[in-house]
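Help! Submission page says 'invalid entity' but I think these are all valid:
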Amino acid sequence: MTDQLIIFDTTLRDGEQSPGASMNKDEKLRIARQLERLKVDVIEAGFAASSNGDFEAIQGIAKAIKDSTICSLSRANDRDISRAAEALKGANRGRIHTFIATSPLHMEKKLRMTPDQVFEQARLAVRFARNLVADVEFSPEDAYRSDVDFLCRVIEAAINEGATTINVPDTVGYAIPELYGTFIKTLRERVPNSDKAIWSVHCHNDLGMAVANSLAGVKIGGARQVECTMNGLGERAGNCSLEEVVMAVKTRRDYFGLDVGIETQHILAASRMVSQITGFVVQPNKAIVGANAFAHAAGIHQDGVLKARDTYEIMRAEDVGWSANKIVLSKVSGRNAFKQRLQELGAQMESESEINAAFARFKELADRKSEIFDEDILALVGSESVARENEQYGFVSLSQHSETGERPQASIVFTADGKEVKSSSDGDGPVDASLKAIEAKVQSGAEMVLYSVNAISGSTESQGEVTVRLQRSGRVVNGVGADPDIIVASAKAYLSALSKLQSKADRVAAQG
Ligand code: KIV
Ligand code: ZN
């Protein structure tokens, strides 16, 4: 067994399955570049057969990313597998990840197949995939609730057909750390050819134990690949969080005795990027990447940390991308200082024209805000404005009036397909009036299922980052907007969500 732990990131596939988290091709590519910077070993870029958009996103990522293995999910059928292989053609290293459910419940109720049929389909799928690529991962979906004897049979056959990685999903987050670790150990002991494949863990967080279960799968079970997502993004309660699992293995190397190749100083920038693109806000007390993860409020703690930081800190904030010096730039800062700060934050941009565009946005912000914090810079290079340039609706200007005892009024100018639209409305509050003014013209008929405001850098001088989640005909989308004025941020977020709602969605659900 090797001492290297493979980090398999599935933010762009399993993470994207969270309601409203779907990403376009450019957004996926930006995240993939950041994952490559992090030195993630395998990037699961999507599910090629699910939509043309996902196919093209995987294709683009396979061409652009050279240091990480690029993987596509596929159901266990020839069409899906061919589509995955086609999308991965340009990759330096491509992997097909094929799966079929093996639990009695899934086989009977979802697939309506007998165990023998599932066994045969799994075997043929791996064989077919291995004829197309050398690197094939097989997942028995809902493995943790499967019959162990049957599971051993299926896995043995998959390895015989050439599967190079065997992934053991706890699809519904039902496992308990000790039991899951022992489950992996048992499988490895009982499957006769288990040493011919790398074993992988894939845990969902329904009981809040995805990270603990994954670590038990590694420590007790001997798995050498962990499947995870940035910020633990994923359906329902999410997946195992990349930043937590990586920092646990690094910080407790004394216990795990394993190496991980992740360049942890890029973690925070990756976390911010994923949060901004998907609209899934990171809770302040989230380990590693939450705003309070390294903040010491209690006087006794602050005193201890000032005397010797390891009294209360087990990791260095800088090692995951937090900067000790938080006020970084102002309107007198030049392009070089801005570019250097981007690099220090692990958020460097690809081309000079992208840097110039981001610098122009920085100058515009610095004119309105005296101190620019790291978080502001990360927001500037996030989905805000970058992706927005291609959106159907764009923010132009807003004025609003609110006074105690009077009903607030808002007037807004925005673009729809490049044409300026003006609208006014009243509302229960200034945000409500602004969004009603937009809705009066767009008439989307969408229901708002979430509205949240988050201060990017924690004070009233901070930019507000607003997330709006809209739902229409069963489709859910998120829009994010940031601005020192939270009413403007709200309008930007709403316009962004409306743009996403209008874009085509023709996806096939992976586990449906
Ligand atoms: O949770 C799960 O079972 C999955 C598989 C498709 C690997 O995501
Ligand atoms: Zn999953």
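Support: the input was valid. A stray whitespace character was the problem, and the output above is from the cleaned input. Residues 14, 169, 171, 202, 204 surround zinc ion (ligand 2) (CB under 6 Å).
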